[in-house]
Amino acid sequence: MSLCLDIALRRGAFELSVQGTLPERGVTILFGESGAGKSSLLRAVAGLEPCQGRIEFDGERWQGRAGTLLAHRRPVGLMLQKPALFPHLDVIGNLRYAARRAPVSAERWEEVLELLSLAPLLSRRVQGLSGGEASRVALGRALLSAPRLLLLDEPLAALDQARRQTLMAVIGQVAKTIPVLYVSHHLDEVLTLGEHLWWLRDGALAAQGEVNDVLAGPGSPLAEHRDAAVVLRTRHLRYEPEHHLLVLALGASEMRVPASGPGGDTPRLRVAARDVSLTLSPASDSSVLNILPAIVDDVRTLPEGQCLVRLRCEQQWLLARLSSYSRDRLRLAPGSRVHAQIKAAALV
Ligand SMILES: Nc1ncnc2c1ncn2[C@@H]1O[C@H](COP(=O)(O)OP(=O)(O)OP(=O)(O)O)[C@@H](O)[C@H]1O
Fold first, then answer.
1. pLDDT tens, 274-283?
2. pTM of the complete model beyond 0.80
3. Phi, psi of 102 (to 5 degrees)
């Protein structure tokens, strides 16, 4: 068990009431519309927002009947929406302050500086930093505080696309060893980073669980969204250089994805519901490279003649967005055996 909470707070007319347990490792995205209470929840976990109830981490009681552990005693690396750097210290002073709590090895120090490209900023005063530079320093400070839990509130909001990709990789790496609670309302971050999802609506968790179970689940926050998608977990098989295609295993099936090189890590493949079409028999004369056997689990009617089909495919969820006309023509219903077609170009 890592973070386990059962808390409530009230601010004016807004009420937050959340019960949840964070997995021991990995990125849990705290997702929800503006005003849902994401920042309030994160700040409460950090000890910056008074609340009622119970917060435990790794068996330690941070909040309960016996009292509250002060914020600076909680072993969290915290990055708030507006990076709160100390204005009287330069960048290196801010980073050293973080490292006071627990000694950081010289290697780790160098590693964080390099990952976040902080070396050129060390002697700068924090007032003159751009939004993106301040975000990198704040993330560096969070990583150098020897955290056992990382709390990040929209950490990439001020960064350009290239930096976002780099920092998402850094955060994903850190999450291999500690839990990360990550506030976002960007689907892109959910699909790239999220292993688990806490979906907050009006101050309460509307759904929580493994990312695909929530995204494809009955109360999915994205069912009607044109970008509704899931993440398939695949295994790297080989690279076909003559076709510039990566061949991946999805259970007993193979998938082909355009790639400029072999790559290494276990690929997470985002598949948007609108890029999936269905046939009743496997087409042998189709140009589509990825044709996967699947069973219809649920068909949900959407506005404007659309529907969202949830499929079980090689033990994973897949979503297909179709017209209701196609649903009726194929007589799709729970239990129907189908073949899901996904164009390789949609998986770039
Ligand atoms: N001190 C306060 N007094 C009154 N209302 C407050 C106070 N602090 C927060 N709120 C309200 O609580 C609600 C939740 O705020 P919070 O910042 O946690 O939402 P959020 O999901 O993080 O939003 P965003 O994505 O826009 O940052 C909002 O309606 C906000 O106006």
1. 999 999 988 8
2. yes
3. -145, 140
Start and end residues for every CATH 3.40.50.300 domain found in the chain: 3-219
Indicate the fold that domain 3-219 takes in CATH. Answer: Rossmann fold (3.40.50)
Give CATH for domain 230-347: 2.40.50.100
CB atoms within 10 A of CB 15: 13
- Mean pLDDT, residues 97-122 taken together: 86
Q: Which residues pair with 28 in a beta bridge?
A: 181, 196
Residues with CB under 6 A from ligand 1: 11-12, 14, 32, 34-40, 185
Question: Residue 328 and residue 115: Cα distance in Å, rounded?
Answer: 52
Distance 249 CA to ligand 1 centre (A): 44
Please state whether 343 falls in left (phi above 0), alpha (psi between -120 and 50) or beta: beta
Categorize the per-residue pLDDT at 188 as very low, low, confident or very high, splitting at 50, 70 and 90.
Answer: confident
Q: Residue 287 burial by CB count (10 A; 0-12/13-18/19+): exposed, middle or buried?
A: exposed
Rounded average pLDDT over 11-18: 95
- At 130-163, the pLDDT tens digits run 888 998 999 999 999 889 999 999 988 888 888 8
CA 77 to centroid of ligand 1, rounded, Å = 22
Mutation choice for ligand 1 from 7, 9, 14, CB with most ligand atoms inside 8 A = 14
What is the atom index within ligand 1 of the atom nearest the CA of 185? Answer: 25
> What ipTM score was computed for the predicted complex, to two decimals?
0.95
Q: Whose CA is nearest to atom 8 of ligand 1?
A: 11
Tell me which residue has tokens 């269905």. 278
Query: Residue 134: enclosing H or E segment and its boundaries?
Result: helix 131-143
DSSP-based three-state secondary structure for 206: strand
Nearest CA to ligand 1 atom 3: 11
Would you state the pLDDT for residue 167? 85
Position in ligand 1 atom list of the atom nearest CA 200 = 21
